[in-house]
Amino acid sequence: MSEAGDPLLELHAVGKRFPGAVALSDVSLSINRGETHILLGENGAGKSTLIKLLAGVYAPDDGEIRFEGQPYRPSSPHGASAAGIRVVHQELNLMQHLSIAENLMLEKLPSKYGLVQRSKLRAKASALLEEVGLSVDPRLRVSALGIAQMQLVEIAKALGYESKLLILDEPTATLTPPEINRLFQIIKRLKAKGVTIIYISHRLHEIFEIGDRVTVLRNGRLMLTRALEGFAIEDIVRTMVGRRMENQLVFREDVALGDELLRVRNLKRNNRAPEVSFDVRRGEIVGVAGLVGSGRTETVRAIFGADPKAGGEVWLSGHKAEVRSPKMAVKSGLGLATEDRKEQGLLLDLSCEANITITDPQKVARVGLLDRTAEARFASDLFGKLRVKAKSTKQIIRHLSGGNQQKIVLAKWLFRGSDMLILDEPTRGVDVGAKHEIYELLWMLAAQGKGILMISSEIPELIGVCHRILVFSKGKIVGELARPEFDQEKILSLAFQEHIQ
User: Fold this and answer.
1) Residue 293's pLDDT is what?
2) Helix or strand or coil: residue 453?
3) How many CA atoms lie within 13 A of 460 on its CB side?
4) What is the number of other CB atoms lying within 10 angstroms of the CB of residue 85?
5) Strand 369-370 to strand 365-366: parallel, antiparallel, or no bridges (unpaired)?
6) Does the CA dihedral 234-239-244-250 come out positive or negative?
7) How far from 167 is each of 54, 171, 176, 362, 370, CA to CA, in Å?
8) How many Å separate Cα 380 from the centre of its chain?
9) d(CA 336, CA 359)
């Protein structure tokens, strides 16, 4: 337990500005030794900016930061790490071309006579992977992993170093309940050793299990800091967004289902993989649940032609679709919002307009040349429909918050007019207000006769928005539940079924 009045980290009237925007203003905060301090706020509230100040990525424009009673102003992330502060960022920072083991031990590779001791490297890496419950060969390249597995590698990497302050930014965004439970046990062990933790999450129901105190930011300003005990979720949400959020997961009964839109038959990702078959009707939202490594993402990537498949058929609107590449998938009427929006879903150094219209450039072209007026008009229309918060449609997308970036990913498929949308973790790293807006968008699309296949690690989310839920385990569908059968324990039991036999 933290001791009252024993601060490890202190912020005094801290401010940070960027061209055209104030990210933080007059933030004063004290975080005690050995506590787990929850940091909350909508996307764009200033959480990421605050973390980057502590990580040495930015320097404050106003105020002072003190760490262990001394002025703290690191000139780089290396300086922050040397001081004892480590960050597991929401946007992962792994070296894709290196092995898992090399990523885990990059700053202290075991060596002798200038040569890396591979056996020691693998042994240390295996121990860290075991601690976070990730069963993979440490010699694998990171590029071979899914986003949830990468998240566990990032957490394992942080555990490999002695930290005084560990900052976890959305660590459970792609994890399922078993992995989350494992992480919480690790956090409790670290806390017992005296490690202080700042924990950021949009999954409000989970913070009560590990948190001591909570700080809420809104529009770059500190709204409150208080004990988490006795702070109701509805009051937290109201403090975050400035309004009451009601019925955000009330299922829409009024959407009529139409004819079969997508049919997948005997799909095999490779010669050793089991076959997968399912259907999606027009107006239907079909959820996909499963543990990390269950084959959910790999299956939809094979459907979309992003990864090769060894067999099976994909049918769209009653016609067999030859989908051997993403380009062919898009032409067939499929759209895929990937789980890793920054690496696979967006062109970060282009404008919002360019990212939206890239799926169908002919719509905004005249005699082969880009019509920038038309591009701006389409983008502006979608900005209004999705309530995107940005300075303008011309803003570089890298500078948007995670929730608004996710809306741009969805906007590009709306611009394309895709009939069948595959959404892989569509609310990953998205705040409670933006989640509500995304759910409303999904129901609007369903009402228009679109089909939606939605992968999510948040089972309550699937239960709240879907007509049916498919449960994956070890690469195959082990259960299909209709709404009257929805039950969180039943879904988890199915997800574990192949692992306990």
Assistant:
1) 75
2) strand
3) 9
4) 25
5) antiparallel
6) negative
7) 9, 10, 20, 45, 44
8) 26
9) 11
Neighbours of 398 (CB within 10 A): 12
Which position has the token pair 């070296």?
Answer: 95
- C-alpha angle 39/40/43, rounded to 5°? 125
Pairwise CA distance, residues 48 & 478, whole Å: 39
For residue 1, name the pLDDT band (cuts at 50, 70, 90).
Answer: very low
H or E segment and range at residue 410: helix 402-416
Tell whether the torsion through CA atoms of 185, 224, 402 and 287 is positive or negative: positive
- For residue 4, count other CB atoms closer than 10 A to its CB: 8
Q: Report how far apart, in Å, the C-alpha atoms of 473 and of each of 270, 299, 314 are.
A: 16, 12, 21
Residue 181 neighbours by CB under 8 Å, 6+ apart: none
Is 167 in contact with 55 (CB distance < 8 Å)? yes
Maximum pairwise Cα distance, the chain: 71
Integer-rounded Cα Rg, in Å, for the chain is 23
Contact predicate 367/374, CB 8 Å: no
| Runs of H (alpha helix) within 134-232 | 147-159, 177-192
Distance CA 267, CA 358 (A): 29
Q: Which stretch, 29-38, 155-164, 237-246, 425-434, has highest mean pLDDT?
A: 29-38
Q: How many CA atoms lie within 13 A of 251 on its CB side?
A: 17
CA angle 31, 32, 33 (to 5 degrees): 130
Sign of CA dihedral 390, 392, 393, 397: negative
Q: Using CA atoms, how far apart are residues 269 and 273, in angstroms rounded to an integer?
A: 6
Contact indicator for 236, 204 with CB cutoff of 8 Å: yes
Query: Could you tell me where the beta strands, DSSP code E, fall in 269-353?
Result: 276-281, 285-290, 311-316, 319-321, 334-337
Over 50: is that where the pLDDT of 412 sits? yes
pTM, full prediction: 0.67
pLDDT at 337 over 60: yes
Residue 7 · residue 31 · CB < 8 Å: yes
* Residue given tokens 């990580």 in the structure block: 55
Copy the structure tokens of residue 333: 């009427």
CA-based nearest residue to 157, from 91, 97, 88: 88
Write out the DSSP string of 266-278: EEESSTTSPPEEE
H or E, element range at 421: strand 420-424
What single DSSP character describes residue 95? Answer: -
CA 255 to chain centre: 28
- pLDDT tens digits, one per residue of 128-184: 898 888 889 999 999 888 877 888 888 888 888 878 999 998 888 778 788 888 889
Q: What is the pLDDT of residue 2?
A: 42
Residue 360 near residue 417 (C-beta atoms within 8 A):
yes
Contact between 21 and 197 (Cβ < 8 Å): no
